[in-house]
Each structure stands twice: as C-alpha cells, then as structure tokens.
Specification:
The complex is a heterodimer of chains A (about 525) and B (about 150).
Chain A lengths: L1 H32 L4 E4 L5 E4 L1 H7 L3 H4 L11 H14 L1 E10 L5 E12 L5 E10 L1 H23 L4 E4 L5 E4 L1 H7 L3 H4 L11 H14 L1 E10 L5 E12 L5 E10 L1 H64 L5 H32 L5 E4 H11 L1 H4 L4 E5 L4 E4 L1 H18 L6 E10 L2 E8 L31 H11 L4 E6 L3 E6 L20
Parallel strand pairs in A: 12-14
Antiparallel strand pairs in A: 1-2, 1-5, 3-4, 4-5, 6-7, 6-10, 8-9, 9-10, 11-13, 14-15, 15-17, 16-17
Chain B lengths: L7 E4 L3 H13 L6 E4 L2 H8 L16 E4 L8 H10 L8 E5 L4 H9 L4 E4 L4 H18 L5 H5 L2
Parallel strand pairs in B: 1-2, 1-3, 3-4, 4-5
Classes of the chains: A alpha+beta (about 525), B alpha/beta (about 150).
Chain lengths: ~525, ~150
C-alpha cells in the first residue's frame, strides 16, 4: 500500500513534473523559436534566462550569461539600466533603442520591448525583454536618408528653381533657387498654393493642370514674382511623379531662368535695331546726298543750256548776217565755235536725261519687250539711212518694267550698235534673250569695231569713251544711262567685246543675286 | 509804247534770249508788235492793265503770251496762275516756252491751264524754226478768242 501510495505519489509527482517539464519545454521552445534575442531579468538586474538568439548576439553561452548583470552587454549600460527601471516603473517599454555589444566587440543595434512578469500573487518577479535586431532596418533607414540627402543635393545643386506640388496644388518641396527667386524661405513656401508665386496665377494653374492631364509640359512660359515685386521670366518643364502603385502623387516642376536668354535676345534685338537705324540714317543721308547731287547736276545742266543757246545763236547770226565781211579763218573759227556749242549742248541734254532717269519714279507694268524694241528701232530710222543692216531679232519676253525707260535702254544700245558698225559694209545687229540661272538676260550684239576687254570697266562710266571723237561722236553718257535704268529695275548690265570683231551688251531687269564687285564686271563664264 | 494791237507778249528776263527770240520772229516777219516783259510782275501789269499799262484795255489782249518759267520776282508758274484764275484774262492763250524738261513743270503748267508747252532747243537753227512755227500757229492758224470773251462778266 505504502508502495502504492508512494507509487501513486511518485506517479503524481512524476505527472506534475512531466507537466511542468512539458510547460517548460513549451515555453522554452517558444523562447527559442524567437529570432529576436530574449532575456528575462530578475528585479536585481541579473539575467535569469536567455534564448539562442541572445547567446548569438552576445557571443556568450547561456551558462555564461545567466546570473550576470544584463546592463553589461550594452554599449550604454546606463541607458540599458534606465530602460530596465522604466519597465519596472511603468510595466513596459516599447522600441527602446539600445546597442548590444558582442564579446568580440561587434555591436548590434536593437529596439527593446520589455514587460514585467508576475507570480500568481501578482508580485513582479522579473522582466522579459525582447530585442529586435534593427541592423537591417537601420541600414535601410540610412540608405533612405542617404538617398534623400542625395536627392536633396540634386535638388539643391540645380540652379533652376525646382518645386514639387501635390495634387491640391500645394507646394511640398522647394530648393534654394526657388527660395531665392521668390524671396521666401522653404518654410514660407511649403504648403502654400504654388500659383500664388507667378505674375499670372491663372496661367500657372493651367500649366499645372496640363501636367496632370498630359503627364508633362515643356518650355511653358511663366513669370515668377519675387516678393519684392520684380519678376523672373522662366520656362517651366514639369512632370508628374507616382507612387509604387502608379498613382500620381505630385508634380515635379523645374523652371529654367530665361532672363539671361531674354537679355541676350534683347541685346541682339537692340543691336539689330541700332544697325537698322544706322543703315536707315545712312541710306537717308545717301539718298539726300544723291538727290542734292541730282538737283545740282540738273540745275547746272539747265543753267548751262541758256548761255550755250546764246553762243550758238549769236555766232549763227554773225555767220549769216556778216559772212561777207568776215575772212575765211573767222568763218571757220565761228563754225568751230558752233560745233563745240552743239557738242556741249548734247552733253548737257544727255546729262539732264541721266539725272532725270535717276530721279524718276518707276512706273512698272507688264511689258512685251518685242514691241518696245520695235518702237526703238522705228525711232532710229534716220540713223539707218543709206546703210545695209541685217537685223536678227529673237523672241523677247514679257517683263515687269517701266516701258519708257526700258525703251530708252534699247534706243541707247541700238544707237551704239548702229554707230559702231558704221564702217561695216553690212552691219549685223542681233537682239535676243538668253537664260542665266533661270533668269531672262537680254542682249544686243553687233559686228562693229568692238572694244578691248581691258577697258570693259570703263564702259558704263559717265563721260567715259573708248573712241576718239573724230572717229565716233558721242557724249559718253548713253551707257551710263542704260546702267542707271537697269539698276533702278534691280538688274545688272555687263558687256563682252573684241577689238574689231564686235560687242555684246547684256542686261537683266530682275534682281540677280549680287556677287561682290560685279556691277561693271564680266558675265559668268565670260572669257 | 502801248500799242493797241500787241500780238505777242514775250515774258523773258534774259536779254540774250529776248534778242535772239525777237530776231527770229522779226526775221520771219510774223509779228509786228511784240511786247517784252522782263519779269512776272511786269507781265501781270501789262495783262491786267495796271501801273504803266493802266490805259490798256482788257478787250485788247495779245494773241499769245510766250512765258518763260524762270523769272525774277514772280516766277512763270505764278504768272500763269494769275492769268488763268481771273475771268478777264483766262482766255488769253499762254504758251510756256522754257529750257526746263522737268515733267513736274509740264504737269503743273497744264494743270494751271497753259495752252502749250514748248522746250527751247540749244541749237539756234532749231530755236528759230520753233519760234517760226509758234508764230505761224498762234498768229496765223489759230482763231483768237472773240472779243466777247473778254467783255463778259
């Protein structure tokens, strides 16, 4: 019986032990299952239990740890103790940051959560503390901090004012440049309506809405208003940015200062204006000088005519009425006087004509050059009397020109052609059109005495002559007049010739792209 | 000096011009009575019968006025304007005889009512020929305005 009792007792105890053991195993397995270092600490601060994770994080065995002061395993024992005391005082602490030092010196940052535990009587018998290893978290936080510092430095490195705006249009971030351009601090700007900082808030808002609608805008012109009132013209580039779910969380906007560009443009514009103004002034001066010169030439020519008329008139009367009383030489001298007078009269008339051409306003109309040529030839009939002339007239175009003046061009060129073929038994005069760079070029060619290309530059000059007056009469103004008329039409004149073979005169009536030093020079490809 | 039958009033300041023109006219025996005014004022005094010409009468105008444009005091255009704006003188034929080849002078002359516009050539033979034709036309060919024209109004 006793045996039995003992046995029963033993069994009971065994069972109780077993239950306790099982509970202990269970508890231990719970403790060990935790990957976080876990300590239980007695009210006196001595470690009463640890788990594997705690052994690992301290580098010491359970046996070594139990019974030692828990605060010794932290880099800041005082803080560890303070936390511990706080637990006793308040029942628990959460996320209390500490650093566990391993025996080899390695430090693990942890967040402690701890609570007191009590016996059945409610008496505090210890603290159960679990430490969360926050190495990774810390690393992550650090990474985030660095990334954000990097981002910020990127933001700040920009000389362009940058801002981020949330969907409500409120500013969520700015950089230094934005502070500078608005004259307001980051704190003042944050959370305010971004549109308020532009001279045209409506346009700013419209741009912002466009970003939301289209995802981005480029080179959107706005003016940022500084709090002191002055404005900075900028070009905005902005895009939405999204969270991980792809939801738009704001707008990132970068403003490019265009003050510099605008200033440069302004400088260029002003320079251009100045140049224009100068050109205009010089042109006006030149025109005035030209007008004065023309007026002077005109009045000189005009006033010269009267005395010429008188010299001619009286010498004529002398010859007529007193011829019988005059010796032969006197009569010869008188007729030389009259010849001279007549020549001078022609020169004066031609000069007058030249200045008139210069002063005349063109009256442009679409004109068939063939009919102008016919008229010019008809007017020259007296000069053709008794001569054998072969005319080779090609097809001529219709052009926009002043017909009276262009007829004069033909008249002068044909008159020259007739004059300089005078010694030919059979004069051949050719008039036609040729094309050069797609433009009409009219030419008048003759088989006359021609000229040496050495003197080609002199041909169109006023009073320039290449022949002796006793060979070929002339005032040296005809070709100058031709050139004046052609230039007035925006055209060019040039000539080719060969001594004793003939000459060809060319002219265009439309502007031909100018080449330097070409006004009196050779045609393209001329020998 | 005031003739009842002045046929030509020659308005010209240059004595050489005057002499050569008169010579040409006389040589051709076209005009017996030529009055010469040496400036615009004198020309108007003659035509408006005032000053030294006060005893002249409006109903005996010259058959033609040969008017130079470049004149001292009052130029030819002003003279022309005065003649043509007054009903007592506006029927008198006025021919502008000038060295000017200015188109604007021609335009103005005709606008003001000139009856002709002739450019003087340098060559004396041409001038003589021209004066002869002018005389022939205005004194022989052309019918002068009837006297009634100058009595009206």
């Amino acid at each position: 019986m006793k045996e039995e009792t003992t046995s029963t007792h033993t069994i009971e105890r065994h069972l109780a032990d077993e239950a306790a053991r099982q509970t202990g195993v269970y508890n231990r397995s719970l403790i060990e299952a935790s990957l976080d270092p876990l300590f239980t600490i007695a009210p006196n601060g001595k470690i009463t239990d640890v788990n594997n994770a705690a052994e690992k994080v301290t580098g010491l065995s359970r046996e070594q740890l139990i019974g030692t002061d828990f605060a010794d395993y932290f880099t800041d024992p005082g803080r560890a103790r303070a936390g511990y005391e706080q637990v006793f005082r308040e029942g628990l602490v959460q996320d209390y940051g500490l650093e566990i030092r391993r025996c080899d010196g390695h430090v693990t940052p942890v967040l402690y959560s701890a609570a007191v535990y009590r016996d059945d009587a409610g008496q505090v018998i210890g603290v159960c503390a679990t430490a969360r290893d926050v190495t990774e978290l810390k690393r992550a936080v650090e990474a985030v901090r660095r990334a954000s510092a990097y981002n910020r430095s990127l933001l700040e490195a920009s000389l362009d004012p940058l801002l981020t705006i949330n969907p409500d249009g409120k500013i969520t971030d700015v950089n230094k440049a934005a502070e500078k351009v608005t004259g307001l601090s980051r704190q003042q700007l944050m959370g305010t309506d971004f549109a308020d900082y532009f001279s045209d808030p409506g346009k700013a808002r419209a741009g912002y809405e466009q970003v939301f609608r289209e995802g981005l805008i480029k080179d959107y012109e706005l003016e940022i208003r500084h709090r002191d009132g002055y404005v900075t013209p900028v070009l905005y580039n902005a895009a939405v940015y999204r969270d991980e779910a792809g939801e738009v969380i704001g707008v990132f906007a970068a403003a490019r200062h265009i003050s510099e560009r605008k200033r440069a443009e302004e400088v260029i514009r002003k320079l251009n204006q100045e140049i224009d103004e100068r050109v205009r002034r010089h042109t006006a001066e030149l025109e005035a000088t030209n007008k004065n010169l023309e007026a002077f030439t005109y009045s000189v020519s005009h006033d010269l005519r009267s005395p010429l008329r008188h010299i001619d008139g009286f010498s004529k009367l002398l010859l007529e009425e007193y011829s019988v009383d005059l010796p032969e030489d006197a009569r010869r001298y008188l007729s030389r006087i009259r010849d001279g007078t007549r020549r001078m009269g022609m020169m004066v008339d031609d000069l007058l004509n030249l200045t008139r051409v210069g002063r005349k306003e063109l009256s442009m109309q679409l004109t068939g050059l063939s009919s102008l040529l016919e008229e010019a030839i008809r007017d020259l009939k007296p000069e053709m009397a008794g001569r054998e002339i072969e005319w080779r007239i090609g097809k001529l175009p219709f052009v926009e020109c002043d017909p009276a003046l262009v007829k004069q061009v033909f008249a002068n060129l044909l008159s020259n052609a007739l004059k300089f073929t005078r010694l030919r038994e059979r004069a051949v005069i050719e008039v036609g059109e040729t094309r050069q760079d797609g433009r009409a070029v009219i030419f008048v060619r003759d088989n006359g005495v021609g000229f040496s290309m050495k003197y080609v530059d002199k041909l169109f000059g006023v009073f320039q002559r290449l022949h002796r007056p006793e060979d070929f009469e002339g005032t040296g103004i005809g070709l100058a007049t031709v050139q004046r008329i052609v230039h007035k039409h925006g055209g060019r004149t040039w000539a080719e010739g060969e001594l004793n073979k003939g000459a060809t005169f060319y002219f265009t009536l439309e502007a031909v792209e100018s080449r330097p030093g070409e006004s009196n020079s050779l045609p393209r490809g001329a020998a | 000096m005031i003739s009842q039958d002045v046929e030509i009033l020659l308005v010209k300041d240059n004595p050489d011009d005057v002499e050569l023109t008169l010579h040409a006219l006389r040589q051709e025996r076209l005009a017996n009575h030529i009055e010469v005014a040496r400036d615009g004022e004198e020309a108007l005094d003659f035509l408006f019968c005032r000053g030294p010409y006060a005893q002249r009468s409006f109903d005996q105008p010259p058959r033609v006025v040969l008017l130079d444009l470049k004149l001292p005091k009052m130029d030819g255009m002003e003279v022309l304007r005065e003649i043509k704006k007054d009903p007592r003188t506006k029927a008198i034929p006025v021919v502008v005889l000038t060295a000017s080849q200015e188109e604007s002078d021609m335009v103005n002359g005709y606008h003001l009512g000139a009856n002709g516009y002739v450019q003087k050539p340098v060559d004396f033979d041409n001038l003589r020929n021209l004066v002869k034709q002018l005389g022939l036309y205005w004194l022989v060919v052309n019918q002068p305005p009837p006297a009634a024209v100058f009595q009206a109004k």
